[in-house]
TrEMBL record:
Key words of the record: Isomerase, Purine biosynthesis
Name of the protein described by the UniProt record: N5-carboxyaminoimidazole ribonucleotide mutase
Pfam families for the chain: AIRC
Lineage of the species this protein comes from: Bacteria, Pseudomonadati, Pseudomonadota, Gammaproteobacteria, Oceanospirillales
Functional description taken from the UniProt entry: Catalyzes the conversion of N5-carboxyaminoimidazole ribonucleotide (N5-CAIR) to 4-carboxy-5-aminoimidazole ribonucleotide (CAIR).
Domain PurE: 7-158
PANTHER family recorded: PHOSPHORIBOSYLAMINOIMIDAZOLE CARBOXYLASE, PHOSPHORIBOSYLAMINOIMIDAZOLE CARBOXYLASE CATALYTIC SUBUNIT
GO molecular function terms noted in the UniProt entry: 5-(carboxyamino)imidazole ribonucleotide mutase activity
Gene: purE
Catalytic activity: 5-carboxyamino-1-(5-phospho-D-ribosyl)imidazole + H(+) = 5-amino-1-(5-phospho-D-ribosyl)imidazole-4-carboxylate
Keyword set includes Isomerase: yes
Species annotation: Vreelandella subterranea
Length: 171
């Protein structure tokens, strides 16, 4: 968990090997001051744990779940089938198909079971953390302010560095 406050976001992944991608979601949540919890919850190896986690998430105070998975990538959809909370799916790059299999598995949910699908890998995990913070920010002014400050910082970086050359002064 990120702090002493109760977690608002659950960050789960199908395997410990997914951490190098999912840590980017956690980093964004930490940057924006969002309390979270993180753990491995495998759709295939621990289905009972998955169901218990998803069914109890709302009553534990979670507001959104970020679920990362590779390969068959069933975790986000199975979690979404067991909770009324928003679920954000992060496709983790697989060895054989470079994450396309994960992306399609998460994106191709049947009508009625919604999963917000993000980009493959680091960018998707980073944006999942940001989107989760935006969702939490609907009810938490401090988090909303942190998101707005992050956006302003991004804008200022571009405005401060309009020349795309590595070192325009050297030419």
């Amino acid at each position: 968990m990120s702090s002493n406050s109760a977690p608002k976001v659950g960050v789960i992944m199908g395997s410990k090997s997914d951490w190098p991608v999912m840590e980017h979601a956690v980093s964004m949540l930490e940057r924006l001051g969002v309390a979270y919890e993180t753990r491995v919850v495998s759709a295939h190896r621990t289905p009972d744990l998955l169901f218990d986690y998803a069914k109890g998430a709302a009553e534990r105070g979670l507001q959104v779940i970020v679920a990362g998975a590779g390969g068959a990538a069933h975790l986000p959809g199975m979690v979404a089938s067991q909770t009324p909370l928003p679920v954000l799916g992060v496709p983790v790059e697989s060895k054989s198909l470079k994450g396309l299999d994960s992306l399609l598995s998460i994106a191709q949910m049947p009508g009625g079971i919604a999963v917000g699908t993000l980009a493959i890998g680091k960018a998707g995990a980073t944006n999942a953390g940001l989107l989760a913070a935006q969702i939490v920010g609907l009810q938490d002014t401090e988090v909303r302010n942190a998101v707005e400050a992050f956006r302003a910082e991004q804008t200022q970086k571009v405005l401060d560095n309009p020349d795309p050359r590595p070192d325009p002064e050297a030419e």
